[in-house]
Amino acid sequence: MALILLLLAPILLLMTTVTSDETIPSMSHIISTVVKVFVTGYFLLASDWIIDHFPEVQGWVISQPLYAAAAIVGVAILVFVLVPWLGRVFVRCLGFGTKGVTRGSTAARYQSRRLGGSVPAGSMFSSFQSMGATQR
């Protein structure tokens, strides 16, 4: 149940961010809202579970140190390898390619309609351009 609510939360938040004059929130607002909900939601779920089950977790770590070390390495790989890779895939799907913004993509439409062709330094759009341009 909590997982279903966590998956639906970004949609519900975005629905409530539309103002009375029915303007659509900017792409950076949408993405930052989704990231906040997922990161804080999953972190809170994991930390609550560990706090509720601390004696069992502590006993398991003491009795199974190799499995505990493997779990820590697995989480490290997930956080430092898989998450950045998924971020690049997401950014490329939006239209931020290795040679710049892809013609006809969501990113190109956003740039022409909201930014007028220029990209402010330090903006989320410029960060996505940088992520998309990496070859890794």
TrEMBL record:
GO cellular component, one term: membrane
UniProt signal peptide: 1-20
Gene3D superfamilies documented for this protein: 6.10.110.10
Localisation per UniProt entry: Membrane
Topology in the lipid bilayer: Multi-pass membrane protein
Transmembrane regions listed in the UniProt entry: 30-54, 66-86
Presence of keyword Phosphoprotein: no
Keyword vocabulary terms for this entry: Membrane, Signal, Transmembrane, Transmembrane helix
Homology family: Belongs to the IFI6/IFI27 family.
Protein name: Uncharacterized protein
